[in-house]
Write a structure and sequence with these properties.
The chain is mainly alpha-helical. Helices cover about 80% and strands about 0% of the residues. This is RsbT co-antagonist protein RsbRD N-terminal domain-containing protein.
Length: about 170
């Protein structure tokens, strides 16, 4: 567990440099060309806040899944409003996840067999988090109908979250 916490602290502590790397990756990748509509600062802010909150989101605390769902439904709606294709949005999240995993491996923290087991556990948690993020972002993107209506959105959110709850609760 200590090593997993160290991985998370490493990411959160290097959120700035990782964000800048992600921005450059997204802006230079032809599969995420729609993100060129957003400024470098907007892109930075999108991912920086995620990297800084990653540890809290990867924990198994009460209410975290609901927070993740709400965050990424809003993310999907924002990308739809920006004219970014759902495929570009999904690929940007995949690139984000892969970049974090490569960063952990490149830092050389994983040195022994027990470290490898913790790294694999961390990878599983990271994948699990990003699977939820992708799903809820796609739901938000698909259901974007214009400016957000809080009353409609709350009922919509509750129905999506409750229907999906069986999968997101880890034992």
């Amino acid at each position: 567990m200590v090593l997993i916490s160290r991985f998370i602290r490493l990411i959160e502590g290097h959120a700035e440099s990782l964000s800048l790397l992600w921005v450059e990756t997204i802006r230079s990748n032809p599969l995420t060309a729609g993100y060129a509509k957003l400024s470098k600062q907007q892109l930075h802010d999108i991912v920086y806040s995620r990297f800084r909150r990653l540890g809290g989101w990867m924990e198994k605390n009460e209410g975290v899944d609901r927070e993740i769902a709400r965050e990424f439904i809003e993310t999907g709606q924002e990308r739809a409003a920006s004219g970014i294709k759902v495929s570009e949005m999904v690929y940007s999240l995949m690139l984000e996840r892969d970049m974090l995993w490569r960063y952990i491996l490149d830092e050389g923290i994983v040195a022994e067999g027990i470290d490898l087991n913790r790294a694999i556990e961390f990878s599983g948690r990271l994948n699990y988090f990003y699977e939820k993020a992708v799903y809820f972002a796609v739901v938000g993107h698909e259901n974007y109908t214009g400016p957000i209506d809080a009353d409609r959105d709350e009922g919509f959110f509750d129905s999506i979250f409750e229907g999906f709850k069986h999968w997101i609760v880890i034992q």
